[in-house]
Amino acid sequence: MSGETGYPGPHERAQPSGRRNPDGTRIDMDETPPDRDADERRAVLTTVVKNEPGVTAKITGLFARRQVNIERIVGEPMGDGTRSRITFVVEPPHPGVDQVKRQLKKLLPVISVEELDLEAAEELTASVNES
Hints:
Largest sheet: 4 strands, antiparallel
Distance between the termini: 71 Å
Strand content: 25-35%
């Protein structure tokens, strides 16, 4: 150990093996990342909201503040046009998604929030695309 702090100096520390790309991200050829299905990294949220000016901006702003990427968004009117259903496919699901769900429920124009499986979201998207 060298230095006044009692910690090893820069040349005494263990050096990581492997190579880095130009961005500085380590690329180790020996390790392959676990093969994950792209669908497993997505979360699908559907909300029923009151039709008010700026409601979509309020909701998407909440996602942005939590740094949750919206991959897909589908909105459709319901019933007599006073309410709409907005479905979001977000990536990646992390603890921020649970926090976003709780905070969405607190917004005044939001009536309900539900998390769906990806197959249900595909059916919703297909039905909106047909009409």
